[in-house]
Amino acid sequence: MLRAALAWVGAATVGMIALGVAGAVGTGALGRVWNLRAELRPIEVVDRRGEPLGVIDHCRAGNAVNAVPCRESLSVPLTGVSEAFLLAYVAKEDVRFFSHVGVDLGRLPRALLSGAGGSTITMQLLKNNVLAGHFDYDTDRRGPLLTLTRKATEFVLAPVVTWRYGRREVLAMSVNSLPWIGIGQRKGVYDAARAVFGVEPADLTLAQSAFLVGLLPAPGRYLVTDTTPPETATARFRWMRRQQLVTLEILRSHGLIGQGEYLEAVSTPLQPRLWRAEYAGSGTDLRVVQAARNPAYTNEPEPVWAMQELVRRELRAAGLDPKRVGRVVLTVDAAAQAALTRRVTGEGATGPRPTGVAEGAAIVDVRGGGIVALASSTGGNQSSDAGRQWAVSALRPVASTVKPLLYAAAFGDGLTQLSAFPDQATRYGSQAIRNSSGTFLGRAVTVREANASSLNTVAVQVGTPREKALRAVLDAAGYQEDASNRSSPSLGTYRAAPLDVAAAYASFAGGGLLCRPHLLAEVTDTGGRPLPLPRPDCQPLWDEVVAFEAFDLLTAAVSTDASHVPFLRPSLLQRLQGRSMPLGAKSGTTDDVNDTWCAAVTPQYAMAVWIGDPEGRQSVPVTLYREQTACREVALLRELPHERRSLDAPPGITRVAGAAVPISGLNPRNPAPVAP
């Protein structure tokens, strides 16, 4: 009987090893295990001044499969994690972690029979980061054979991981990839410590550590909404409290903490940031009376969270494999990014956006097209989905923000700011053209005044004979024609994203060069060696005289009496602070009021803001366009530090009646636009 039993165990072991090897080969897991440290090491991201912006995981790069969505923030070494957390985690999850080779044979029968509960820390690391999506974990498939195959594969690979990296490195990789999926798609001890308690991992107390470790079996229970019934919320928090106490008892029973430490931890009335809990009693009798969501809770992601897919996309476009990249320097300015994010997510002066109203905003440097800040929202919530990055993907009719491009095209065809046209009833084909005011001045106005007052009649008169040239300019700038809209392109029927509009306006302050916006300034590999990046893609769009005249046209739209955005003029305080640099701007609103825009430019930056419905189905609330909310957003440009505070007029420019125009006899001509 003994020999038969041993033979059965031997056969089962050989069979399990064979099944595990087959699982490892079939999923390609062996290669991923060999490079696991590099795969789990995120890309460090800093701004152009070296300020940290967060990290980017490889979790969804290429064909990588990972149960946990891409995270928001940092990995930390074991020295950056409190001893209390490490003790609680190892004691609760795998108390013999430092004495086995990745597989705890004493717990193996339980793991095989239950499909859970017997995994070691090493096996959990494999399940969450290598085998997810292949068997029964993070898939819609269930069944004992799938579970057995996954466990067998873990059994085979765990000793390889331990041998390859050592136990300390395995523990470091594990604590930085723990799937607190329910906590705002968080992952790792840094994210959990910051999101739940607002502290650094090194500062986690014993009570906080036990609370976090207790959440691991079901982190989704941590989440609570304003509509959760009080009794449900209280029961959920009591469950978390019980799990915390179980973890503390395990620590005490193994002699890892003393009685005094235990009593102090169990008697601490924790207040996670998301929750507001009321306690009664004291010491070991401390109990939860009731709990609910904290109405004051906010949780702003790391800046790079919303841009991670865009960074990956740009890396691949540059011919770089994101898995080879260890660090990137972005053209982004961390302070500008934070300020723009606050505005777009409704924390700025303009207040929160109504439900269903999205906003996209972009700021670019006119010197080369580097993206300074980029923010998008959907009803006040940021998104890391590149398809919901409205600043890049919301192709909406640009409305009257097209007029400065139209007039710049005309300046290269013999017109100037002082060319005059009658503001009167005008037609484009069979369509009657009206101004937004519904009235006509009934007199001749200059292009300078027409732009400041946003007169549609003058735009159509200027644009109709130059429609071919305007279309070529819009094509070169990356705008897209709306074939269903047969109105004049001079009125903004072409579609573009805010980032493209900002780049087009940057050309006015950039000497006529149109530079494709980009995020990457420097890239190094995982060994710290620099990787090559393509040069900024800049093409001449305007003659430099035309570009300066268009810049002056835009500043007049802010500074003259006919201005439609007088609130953008510098205040007395800004003048005293040296922030009165020239700023030009143009607003725009579509006829159906589904979109409201503003684009602006200074000697150093260009910015575009769009607010509306990405699907084009509903109108923007009347207050948003009547108060010109989008143009109030571009006031941020005056708050940014400027190295260039003015533009020098190029040779060939003179001033007539305050307007910059070409000298007599000079007829500037724009270069032929180059399509992207």
Automatic annotation (TrEMBL):
Coarse class of the protein's main subcellular location: membrane
Record flagged with keyword Membrane: yes
Keyword Nucleotidyltransferase part of the UniProt annotation: no
Pfam families linked: Transgly (PF00912), Transpeptidase (PF00905)
InterPro entries: Beta-lactam/transpept-like, Glyco_trans_51, Glycosyltr_51/Transpeptidase, Lysozyme-like_dom_sf, PBP_transglycosylase, PCN-bd_Tpept
Catalytic reactions of this protein: [GlcNAc-(1->4)-Mur2Ac(oyl-L-Ala-gamma-D-Glu-L-Lys-D-Ala-D-Ala)](n)-di-trans,octa-cis-undecaprenyl diphosphate + beta-D-GlcNAc-(1->4)-Mur2Ac(oyl-L-Ala-gamma-D-Glu-L-Lys-D-Ala-D-Ala)-di-trans,octa-cis-undecaprenyl diphosphate = [GlcNAc-(1->4)-Mur2Ac(oyl-L-Ala-gamma-D-Glu-L-Lys-D-Ala-D-Ala)](n+1)-di-trans,octa-cis-undecaprenyl diphosphate + di-trans,octa-cis-undecaprenyl diphosphate + H(+)
Entry EC number(s): 2.4.99.28
Subcellular location: Membrane
Domain Glycosyl transferase family: 72-240
Residue intervals of the Penicillin-binding protein transpeptidase domain: 361-615
Keywords: Carboxypeptidase, Cell shape, Cell wall biogenesis/degradation, Glycosyltransferase, Hydrolase, Membrane, Multifunctional enzyme, Peptidoglycan synthesis, Protease, Transferase, Transmembrane, Transmembrane helix
Name the record gives this protein: peptidoglycan glycosyltransferase
